[in-house]
């Protein structure tokens, strides 16, 4: 009889234990998915920014407008993935002037991806950003008249 009384006292605790176990397992899993999604967005942003920056540079009509076109293309790519104003792009040329036919233009894009749901005061103490970068090389067309 004592055994039955003990079983009766624990009625309904399985639901509570299941809920706590689900919370303890699902909250970190959901946060991991959020972090990975944000990193993937950063990866898409730098890949697109590097590619479009190099393409915009080599299709410009002169060196003066090439840098502005390159930066504008990279800014659009960063903004498209949710990183407005936080990405950087650098363009390097193999020849001088840069748009010499047959030359190569290399564009390198970088962004620091902050971890989601972390308060700003905590980010000042512990750096919780992951740097992501991509590089793209584009040839300047040989037979295009500029």
Protein traits:
single chain, three-stranded antiparallel β-sheet, transmembrane helix, 19% strand, membrane, 4 helices, 146 residues, rod-shaped, alpha+beta
Short description:
The chain has 146 residues and is an alpha+beta fold.
Describe, in plain words, how this protein is organized in 3D:
The chain crosses the membrane at residues 12-34. This is Pilus assembly protein. Keywords: Membrane, Transmembrane, Transmembrane helix. By secondary structure, this protein is α+β, with helices and mostly antiparallel strands. It has one domain. It has 4 helices and 3 strands; from the N terminus they run αααββαβ. It has helices at residues 2-9, 13-58, 63-80, 120-125; strands at 88-93, 104-114, 129-139. The chain has a 3-stranded antiparallel sheet. Helix 2 packs antiparallel against helix 3. The mean pLDDT is 89.
What's the gyration radius in Å? Answer: 26 Å
Largest sheet: 3 strands, antiparallel
The tally of strands reads: 3
> If helices are DSSP runs of H or I spanning 4 or more residues, what is the number of helices?
4
Q: pLDDT average, as an integer?
A: 89
Whole-number total of structural domains = 1
Q: How much strand?
A: 15-25%
> How are strands sequenced across the largest beta sheet?
1-2-3
> What distance separates the N and C termini?
98 Å
Give the oligomeric state: single chain
The residue fraction in helices comes out at 40-55%
């Amino acid at each position: 009889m004592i055994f039955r009384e003990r079983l009766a006292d624990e009625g309904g605790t399985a639901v509570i234990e299941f809920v706590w176990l689900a919370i303890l397992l699902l909250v970190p899993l959901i946060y991991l998915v959020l972090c990975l999604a944000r990193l993937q967005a950063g990866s898409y942003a730098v890949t697109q920014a590097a590619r479009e920056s190099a393409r915009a540079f080599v299709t410009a009509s002169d060196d003066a407008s090439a840098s502005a076109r390159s930066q504008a293309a990279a800014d659009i790519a960063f903004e498209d993935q949710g990183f407005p104003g936080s990405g950087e792009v650098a363009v390097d040329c193999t020849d001088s002037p840069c748009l010499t036919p047959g030359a190569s233009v290399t564009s390198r894009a970088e962004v620091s991806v902050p971890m989601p749901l972390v308060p700003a005061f905590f980010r000042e103490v512990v750096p919780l950003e992951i740097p992501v970068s991509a590089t793209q090389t584009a040839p300047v067309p040989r037979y295009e008249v500029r």
